[in-house]
Predict the 3D structure of the following.
Amino acid sequence: MLDQRFDPAASEAQIYQRWEEADCFKPSGDTSAEAYSIVIPPPNVTGVLHMGHALNNTLQDILIRYHRMTGKNVLWQPGTDHAGIATQMVVERQMAESGSNESRASLGREAFVERVWEWKEESGGQIIGQLKRLGASCDWSRTAFTMGEDGSDDDQMVRAVRKVFVDLYNEGLIYRAKRLVNWDPHFQTAISDLEVENKEVAGHMWHFKYPLAGGATYTYVEKDEDGNVTLEEERDYISIATTRPETMLGDGAVAVHPSDERYAPIVGQLCEIPVGPKEHRRLIPIITDEYPDPDFGSGAVKITGAHDFNDYQVAKRGNIPMYALMDERGTMRSDGAPYAEVAETAGRIARGQESFDEAKITAMNLVPDEYRGLDRFEARQRVVTDITAEGLAVMVADAEGTETPLVENKKVMQPFGDRSGVVIEPMLTDQWFVDAETLAKPAIEAVKTGKTRFVPENWEKTYFNWMENIQPWCVSRQLWWGHRIPAWFGPTADKKENGALDVYDYQGQIFVGESFEKVKQLASNYYGYPVSEAESITELQQALFSEENNTSEVQAEFKFLDLRPKSIPLVQDPDVLDTWFSSGLWPFSTQGWPDADGNEDLKTFFPGSVLVTAFDIIFFWVARMMMQGIHFMGEVPFKDVYIHALVLDEKGQKMSKSKGNAIDPLELIDEYGADALRFTMAAMAAQGRNVRLSKQRVEGYRNFSTKLWNAARFCQMNECANWEGALDPTTLTQPVNQWIVGELAKTGAEATTAIEEYRFDGAAGAVYRFIWNIFCDWYLELIKPLLNGEDEEAKVETRRTAGWVLDEILKLLHPFMPFVTEALWEQLGEDGPKRDGFLMLQAWPTYDEAFENATAAEEMDWVIDLVTEVRSVRADLGVSPGSKVPASLVNASETNTARLERHGEVISRLARLEGLGVVEETPEGAVTTVVDEALLALKIADIIDIGEAKARLTKEIAGLEKDVTGIEKKLGNENFVSRAPADVVEENRQRLADGKVRLEKLKGALARLAQL
RNA sequence: GGGCGGUUAGCUCAGCGGUAGAGCACUACAUUGACAUUGUAGGGGUCACAGGUUCGAUCCCUGUACCGCCCACCA
């Protein structure tokens, strides 16, 4: 006998364990069956399950369980992501909080990475355990990790990443370049555009005067739209607006639009940056460029190529030097020569008296001595203060004529690191870039031609928009935790005819290969000398300088001539790859690529059937998988991309720990069970919307599972449970049984279609309604008389049908509520013939047309309508619920007379009636109502308020009259009759006829009431 | 500035060219009879606004207003 209710806390883990031990999650291996595969979006290895995961993985598990039941060879590929920045951050924070003196720096690279591996081993199982609690039926024996087992050279995952890097490099699709990139001063690494969040913050716009060189002046003229002069004055300066005064120190020019007549007289002249020691004021040229907007601000823009993305473009176009001002922590540089000296050089460059190259500019630190080492925001304040003190701020007069510096308070968009939260600084650095534009082209094409389909479709637009405007992808990170870039730097060297080398710098030459062994070959061919691996530049320097190697004279710094070294030292790039670089390979790297022996799985399970993810990582992940998948596999990585909503709190806010509004899915599982949470996720997963989660909703679905449990309990008590074999609907004789199997078939079809179309809410809703509103509310009530009756044949048939329908219900509900359904499947099976294995491995139900019996459906609808009508009348007229009311059906048709004979007992029972039969005359003292063609008479006139009964009828008549009038009007409209589809017209005629008949009867009933 | 989406019952949301729906909440009644994590009945909506297309619009089109989100370089 089943317990009173299902206890998720006690059962779920145990059921899960038995599935797992029985290898239920593994692919069937039946290669004759269609393959169905999904790769899990790998959660951060050290992460914890949040509501987004709960939704994401519930939907995947529904698909996986459904397709597994349909007999496919199903793989749900699990795994975790090493999550470079996030994990490194966690471990660093732990060390800081532990109170020990250890830090990343103190440990050094090797020990620190070792520590992260330890942390991965320690906490990496947590999220997987949590996914198991949710019921995720992944094949855990294949659990993958984006860094492989141990990150060693021969690890398959590592080899996959290296091969991709090397191949792309050799194809010219990965290159190293000095570019302006987003720099995170907190983590001290470059990050990609996507990892930057632009936020609007309160800022200021300062206006400063850049005096013309040598006190030159010009006539500044402003005109309105009609060309009338509105301002004309002599000026000895050009006015500049900036939100970032500290970057003035690195200005290389002032730019104006070529069409801007105001500044035409001074284009080509020099002006002075109004900051820094007076005696070393730096001069910069006034140039023209298309970039400045003459209508914005003063129309003149300072150009700081090394600290602003727009300025960078202008500087590149105009060959303007880009002076870097900050170090990797975002503080003002304090390296290099004293300011006076550097400013002098810069001056000569500006006047065209000295040539320059990239290396030279990079080495120049133009931060005045007194600002060196300052934090960038502190420096900003100092610059503003100093300029203002000198009277070079643009002044504005108030109403009383008092002049104050012009400082506009305005909202400015500022870039923040999505992980660090600090202001991102554009920095000129050497980084590795992927030519995303080239890779994007076939990825765009694949979606255009439908090889990959977005569901819902509208996300294609988002995808196209981003892909068509894609920028080079910066893939190098100055972190320690991640895939080390397989590139080695060696000295730039010329080979001389005598076989000796002239070496010009330490690491100008790049060798890319999958291992040092391969690179060694490349490099020794290149140099004509053996090569060795050095740990660092220092080591490399020492090697080059060492006596035994250096047979030459050192002519100048960085130059070694006539070198005949025993070996040439190479240093591996210290940087690691962007996490998404390896995540992008996930669909095939998890299937054994690039190894030949991995190809069976690869053939079977690649491409994936569908990728299930939220829209916030379309760019980060989906796009990258598309690009890398198509490039390396020659095929799209998945056929469908199902984009689901974000989980928000009840108020529609994004859940986050910091806001404190996060609901922990594990707490919900503890409280209501995984099934309830899963069903909530499915029911709320309407396409293209956000999911607002409330506990109440989860509680409601927990109640649903209890409802099912009790229905099963009822079946069990009545010996309905667990009958063997299939059910042949054509052998059924009882209308109620014929009807329920038809309703079940409809539900099955509805649920199946909905799942196939990724309408999880539709599928969940269909099953929910069938179970609660049809099976429990009606069917179980309707069969009670049969189960308790004398007719043995009918009893057997009913037990059999009820038990069979219940089993079918368990199958249909299983993908949504795997635990309670599996528990019922098992426990119901205990009394009868043994179950044929786990529910989760049963075949998904399909039903042919024989299950639908229209006659039985009409009959049972009539029964239900009749009962409902009586209940409604009774409730409205205040008849006490317990009392039995004498009732009869007046002038019923033959059909309904027969129906009443069959179902009179159950109708009487459900509607609390007695003496129910068919009569020809309306009995005395009866209140009547209309059911179908007949009048239903209830002998309650003496116990109710006649006024209320009248009111009830009057209201119904009024409503019906409104309907009838509306339809009459419609049918009176010639255009409607002639243009509307025939079936719609016919339907309306029928409704009108039915309505009129009913109306007449209701009016008759009201008249009769009036006589009482 | 560009793009996407939303506006339907008190709340959260489905629906979608032809009778406006669900869950929760609310109201009334019901308790030995599978289930109070329950049952029965009920109240509640000019489907944001304005035009248009159509025999017919909550649904399609155009515009307006608010509300979200994403992308974007205005110093």
The first helix of chain A runs from residue 8 to 21.
